[in-house]
Specification:
single chain, 809 residues, alpha+beta, Neuraminidase, Immunoglobulin-like, 5 domains, 5-stranded antiparallel beta sheet, 5-stranded mixed beta sheet
Length: 809
């Protein structure tokens, strides 16, 4: 786990062997030759001899060695086959890691279902290595995640092409500020023979320019100040100003990294100056994969190293860059990023640290992750998802300055490989769909197009404003910035503004935001008003307080006038009034006299329940004694004409000798009392439900039990009617009688008349007419006024039920 390839098969080499004919080679000689080739790091030759030796002796320890070599060379098909052979033969558990390596091979092949079973078999066996168990659990989690993970939308990954990729491995990519691609390669198309004529078998740094068609110019090798004979040079990073380059010079023993240090060089004209080893960064450990970033407002270098005391194998560190170009001592970025496994190949852009890890839950091998810096800490790393990641190794992920093009290095299927399909790394081009955000705003009046409006788009994040006026239409279009907050203000002369707030945060794909703004017309100014002085004993008619024939129930229209009368009583707190009620001439005189008295009492009760003292109101019923039109006894009249006589009036009988009432002169010349914005007073406090035990103690108390006190009518089209019956039980110890049921003018009510004994039942029937409502969404109160009096306040007791509606178009 800890011996990680720096270039992943930069060297595929062999040493010449004067082999004898196979039929003369003994098993002992086969083994000796294999071990000699392995000592020379000639893995492919060693494998040939080990496999021949295994065919002769069937030694499971040799099978395990062969499996490990195939896995190291990233031939996962052969590794899986040999690990299966070991697992099947290893009945005594001599090679416990074979099961884990089998799972890793299957995962690298993308066979996640098989890998999950192999991981579970490994974890079910007892293991004394706690770290290995923890790593295996994380790898199992990754396999389970990969099984259902879908490719990330808007991202494409493709081989960068033969101009930069060869049959050998490429590595260490970086993007210069001008977009030039830097990378490490041996630029070889066949095996390098160490004892042959080809002398330079070390990786060097190259640069290439990406063409508009996606191809690359011919790679240009950097000069000898950077590329040094006898070292593998790679893992390049360039400062944002393009003036300094950082890179590694490494040594390999076969395919295993034995040493690596980070160097720097400064640009002189068009070439790089002499390279120097970085102080403080390098030490008695392997330092690799430098990149330049920023933390705490200062430039830093991120790099990977196996410094003693780290979290796992290779961890990511950072070192702060001083103004003179030197660096401070390294600091581990912490366990949020670093794991028991290896973290490598960091790159940094706009507060985001990209890196590869085999210790996080991934799709297989090394996966690319991203962690965001919030000014204090790094966030929990997030897997970059399928396509960026594969079941194989995916490393060296970088993005250009705009963030829509980049590269990664991978041995996934699709590489130009010299040996197995996954032996060698290629550079892959990453293209991220450019996410755009746009706004289409529509101005409307009652859901119909409103032309001639102005839209102001306020960018709250950038503190800027953009404005458009459309005199011929109602559509407005604006481009938007990603991850910004906005406010839209729609305006037009003669209309109230409408405002909306929205944002473009965390968009995963391009989006057009469609917003509708409804403007309400400003009402015309109120007509001119004049003031009239009303003196004591002068009757004032309350124009809207009418009654149905033979009924003392206050109609919904009456509540506005009664509310106005309450306002006058509040305005003149010492005023005492006579509240008189009149009937029409139908019916006998005595009955009408009693009916009018009940009506006057009903109007008084309405006011008392809303806080007016009883002593300030004298209810008087005049019956049919004061008829205002010709509709006296025996005269045939329409119901509307009779209704004109069914009225309520008031006059001052104590307190101020006169009061001022504002009058509005209408266009037709008529004059009415001004009652602008007079709110309907709140209902009197309702009766409180008494607990059962308290009811037994408190004789003579009023209590109700409702089947439902709140009804949800739900959503329906305006114009429809809804009805409901509220059922109740008199659970108190006193007779109750309903005096009045009041709701909005959109609701008619009916109720159980007469006395309801304790234990008796009653009901309230309502019919809601939505055509009379402008509010699209409201809770309506239905107040039930009782003839029963509160023993303390002497006011009528009140119960309340409710219903809710929501109107659709």
């Amino acid at each position: 786990m800890k011996n990680i390839l720096v270039f992943s098969l930069f060297i595929l080499c062999y040493i010449s062997l004067n082999a004898q004919p196979l039929n003369k080679v003994t098993p002992e000689l086969m083994l000796r030759i294999a071990e000699e080739q392995l000592a020379e790091k000639d893995y492919y030759r060693a494998l040939e001899w080990y496999e021949q030796y295994y065919d002769e002796v069937r030694d499971k320890s040799i099978a395990y060695k062969i499996a490990n070599m195939h896995y190291m060379l990233r031939d996962y098909n052969k590794a899986e086959s040999w690990y299966k052979r070991v697992v099947n033969k290893d009945k005594d558990g001599y090679f416990p890691d074979a099961q884990l390596q089998l799972a890793r091979s299957q995962k690298a092949l993308g066979n996640y279902d098989e890998a999950i079973l192999s991981y579970q078999d490994f974890l079910s066996a007892e293991s004394t290595d706690h770290n290995i168990v923890m790593i295996a659990r994380k790898e199992l989690e990754g396999a389970q995640m990969a099984r259902t993970m879908k490719p990330v939308e808007g991202i494409s990954v493709a081989n960068a092409g033969k101009e930069v990729n060869t049959a050998m491995s490429e590595s260490g990519v970086a993007i210069a500020p001008d977009g030039t691609l830097y990378f490490a390669s041996m630029q070889a198309e066949k095996e390098i023979v160490i004892d042959g004529k080809q002398g330079n078998y070390f990786a060097r740094l190259f640069s290439a320019t990406r063409q508009p068609d996606g191809t690359f110019s011919e790679p240009r090798e950097l000069d000898n100040e950077v590329n040094r004979e006898g070292y593998h040079v790679g893992s390049v990073a360039i400062t944002p100003d393009g003036n300094d380059i950082y890179f590694t010079r490494a040594g390999l023993e076969g395919n295993i990294l034995s040493e690596s240090k980070i160097f720097t060089a400064t640009k002189t004209g068009s070439t790089w100056g002499a390279a120097t080893e970085l102080a403080n960064i390098n030490g008695s450990y392997i330092a690799k994969h430098p990149c330049i970033g920023e933390l705490y407002g200062r430039q830093v270098m991120f790099f990977s190293a196996n410094i003693e005391g780290g979290k796992g194998g290779y961890d990511i560190y950072y070192a702060t860059r001083n103004s003179d170009g030197t660096f401070e001592l390294p600091t581990n970025v912490g366990e949020v990023v670093n794991t028991l496994g290896d973290e490598e190949t960091p790159s940094y852009r706009d507060g985001k640290l990209y890196f590869s890890s085999n210790g996080q839950a991934g799709l297989g091998g090394f996966d690319v992750f991203v962690s965001e810096w919030n000014g204090v800490n790094f966030s929990t790393p997030k897997n970059m998802g399928k396509d960026i990641n594969s079941s194989c190794d995916d490393r060296f992920f970088v993005l250009d300055k705009e963030g829509y093009q980049g590269y990664l290095v991978s041995n996934r299927i699709g590489t130009t490989s010299l040996k197995s399909k996954t032996c060698c790394d290629d550079i892959f081009a990453v293209n991220i769909e450019r996410i755009t955000a746009n706004l289409t705003a529509l101005t409307l009046e009652k859901d119909k197009a409103l032309q001639g409006a102005t839209i102001q788009l306020v960018d709250i994040s950038a503190n800027t404003t953009n404005s458009q006026t459309n005199g011929e239409g109602n559509e407005f279009k604006f481009p938007l910035m990603l991850d910004h907050e906005y406010k839209i203000i729609a305006s037009k002369k003669g209309y109230y503004n409408d405002t909306l707030v929205f944002n473009t945060l965390s968009l995963k794909k391009s989006q057009v935001f469609e917003k509708k703004l409804n403007l309400r017309p400003v009402p015309p100014p109120p007509p001119p008003v004049e003031e009239t002085v009303v003196t004591a004993n002068e009757p004032i008619r309350l124009n809207n307080i009418y009654y149905n024939y033979d009924d003392d129930k206050i109609l919904q229209d009456a509540e506005e006038d009664l509310g106005y009368l309450k306002t006058l009583l509040d305005q003149y707190p010492d005023m005492v009034i006579e509240l008189s009620s009149h009937t029409d001439a139908r019916g006998n005189d005595a009955y009408n006299m009693a009916l009018s008295q009940r009506r006057a009492e009903s109007a008084k009760q309405w006011l008392v329940q809303r806080g007016v003292a009883e002593a300030r109101i004298k209810p008087v019923g005049y019956g049919e004694s004061v008829i205002l039109n010709q509709c006296a006894n025996g005269v045939k009249c329409s119901d509307e004409e009779h209704r004109f006589n069914r009225r309520t009036e008031f006059k001052i009988i104590a307190g101020p000798t006169s009061i001022v009432i504002k009058k509005i002169k209408k266009k037709d010349g008529t004059v009415v009392e001004d009652r602008p914005n007079v709110p309907t007073p709140p209902p009197a406090p309702r009766a409180v439900d008494v607990p059962k035990k308290e009811k037994q103690k408190q004789a003579g108390k009023v209590a109700f039990s409702w089947d439902k006190k709140y009804i949800e009518f739900g959503s329906f089209k305006k114009g429809l009617k809804k009805s409901h019956t509220y059922n109740f039980t008199n659970t108190g110890t006193e007779d109750v009688e309903i005096d009045l049921v009041s709701a909005c003018d959109c609701t008619t009510t009916e109720w159980t008349r007469g006395v309801i004994k304790p234990g008796g039942k009653g009901k309230i029937d309502i019919v809601f007419d939505s055509a009379k409502k402008e509010e699209p969404d409201e809770v309506i109160d239905v107040d039930v006024f009782l003839k029963n009096k509160d023993p303390k306040t002497k006011a009528s007791m009140v119960e309340r039920v409710q219903f809710h509606y929501k109107l659709t178009k």
